[in-house]
Amino acid sequence: MSPSKVSSDLAWGVTIGAAGAILLPRVLETLLSLSKSGRTSNGRVLLTSVLDDIEKRWGKSNSDGSKTDPTSLSSSCIKYRDPVELRKELEAAGSLAIADVGMDQSPTADQDMYKMLRKFSEFSVNTSHPLFVNQLFGTLDRASLAADFMAAADNTSNYTYEAAPVYSMVEVEVLTALCKQVGWDYEKECDGMMLPGGSVSNVMGMHCARHSKFPETLKEGNAAMGKKPMAFVAAEAHYSFLKCSGLLGLGRESIVKVECDDSGAMSVPHLRKALEKCKKEGGTPFFIGCTAGSTVRGTFDPFEEVAKVGKEYGCWVHVDGAWGGSAIMSDRQDMKDLMKGVSSCDSFTFNPHKMLGAPLQTTCFICRRKDFMLSVNSSKAGYLFDTRKANAHLDIGDKTFMCGRKVDAIKFWALWRYRGRDGLAARVNRNVDNLKAFAEKIKAHPSFMLACDPWAFNLNFFFIPKRIKKLLDDANIPLDGSTYKIPDDISDEIDKVSVALKLAMQKAGKALVPYQPLSNQKAQCFRVVVAGVKDMNDEVTTAMMNLMIKHGDDM
Questions:
Q1: Which of 55, 104, 257, 306 is 20 to 30 A removed from 281 (C-alpha atoms)?
Q2: Distance CA 217, CA 210 (A)
């Protein structure tokens, strides 16, 4: 098979287990050869052992001819232990303590240290398991993981070109390509950088908004903002916006939570009403935070309409696409409809480490203001940033409020370059289609009930055991999704089941499925997302449903 054919097949994700099967072992072999070469005298055996273990974990043949595959349904999702039991398991491999009074402070031998690290991995959650849907991340993309390994071995900080020449260029390349996807021109009209997570990106968005509206705050602080600077976010928005307000010294009362429509998206009429109320009370609106894929329901706000309102009221409009922003990689019309109007906003962030499968953390932040982030954050620290240095115009680090920076861009660059945009689009589209098929199975099954209308990336539902099904039947409430109204007394019983069933599956080591609060329901519901390189196919969804029935039908 030609290399181009291999690349094509892997890019389209034909076989999840084989994806990156050529690239990742080669990178591990390179690192193994370095660890064996004697270039490092201390820890050489330890590093070799760990790298060899990682290679085995990702599908290398074992001595008995079997394969280790963390993405298989037959693998363990978690070896559940409570904290006391877990400490006993870990202590069996060696002491967990590092600073106890009177403990032996002598060095640990390589093999003893490897034994402990292997035990850590054994009792960590297998986030590559098909039934790990507890968070908005999951199975790693192997090409991106390979790049992350190499970058970690290079051990540099991406703040100046002289310290990270290749990675500085890679970061600009990633931002340029992402801006193009959004509909912006990075070189002519944009700024941006990689940041450590979506919450930090939301801080950056609000920080930029404050500077845009009140540039004098850079020197004078929040006193220069005048009376009651106010920010507006949807009621379904991420909790980080509340934390942003505290971090920036604005206070939580500066955050206005705008009512949502029945689907969970920000209501533009309610937004306008809130803005008008703010102005009448002497406040100054300066920021509107939109969401592309809310954490629980998966809602997308109407960016185009919000951007028009934001411009009318002089607000910076930021799009938190940490979860759903991956839709920007798809050319399919339903995905384009979700992201319609994002190009009219002022800033956008999304996390390739979520749906696309890059290693944690990989987060992009871009804004539609050329060289704006330097004016917001630059301190011109002479020991690090000096325009007389060679290629200083490519220094990135002064654009943020932090100093040391991991070379996160290489993870997204490798993901995009290796899979191709078509491959990433196919990953997004497949996930949407699989979740839609799962929703139909939920609607048709007598032991399950949708909790709200599904959005593209999130599915929320209840498990209905036999006794509660009888209660719903007696109340003439169908399970087919035609209504989401459930009496409070029955909701209380469903809530108890959700909590108990999650724990039962977790203790069995078979699955991690979260229960979540939903604005239109009293009971906690189960939320399923497809994050990382997962194929949520019929076999996987059937396994999840059967597992819930097995552990929950008699609850």
A1: 306
A2: 8
